[in-house]
């Protein structure tokens, strides 16, 4: 496994995995999400279960490959050419080497502890998978394009530094990090807000649904459209949260004032 392969991470849910697979097979971009949702709703329970099982198998294989890669990796130490190396430098080099080996061993142990995937790893709101794939093995190349950014708060005052000097240093470091974070584009809200609006949009783009109407749908079918709307709303909220977190403090303050004015 090379470095590029080791950095591949699989989608966090079966639905996101299916949408990526759907767009890839159609050679289209992410704007085809509504077509993917429509395909998801047409699957039977047996087809959904096959998709769940394949997702768990792909994720397990990925973690096994990652564990094997970490077990073979060697710590990188750049050799420094010194004619007369002192005893202290030799000791320091050995300490760095031992620390690197311990870090790799800890990463391998953590990876091995997550090799077994249970049903709890799949979100509860996912009640139906999306599309059956004749060649599901191609999904091993899918990458997760959205990564969550963890924010680590820096306290302004601590018991060891009641005068606030430690907090000032952390504030300066935080500002430097904030400048390096690119500002994301503000996401657009979903064009549909209810299950009925989603049904009407899909009906306008599909000839197979020309004879159907919202009033003739069963309660179970209407519930599926409402679940699809919740997925779109949750995706929009997640993107908007990432957008707000990427804003500098001044722009975030102005955005807050404009919202409540």
UniProtKB/TrEMBL annotation:
Q: Nucleus: is it a keyword of this entry?
A: yes
Main location class: nucleus
Query: Does the record bear DNA-binding in its keywords?
Result: yes
The name this protein goes by in its record: Uncharacterized protein
Cell compartment(s), UniProt: Nucleus
The protein's organism comes out as Loxostege sticticalis (Beet webworm moth)
Listed GO cellular component terms? nucleus
Against InterPro entries, the record matches this protein to:
HMG_box_dom_sf (IPR036910), UBF1 (IPR051762)
Q: Name one GO molecular function term.
A: DNA binding
Question: What keywords tag this UniProt record?
Answer: DNA-binding, Nucleus
According to the record, the residues making up region (Disordered) are 156-180
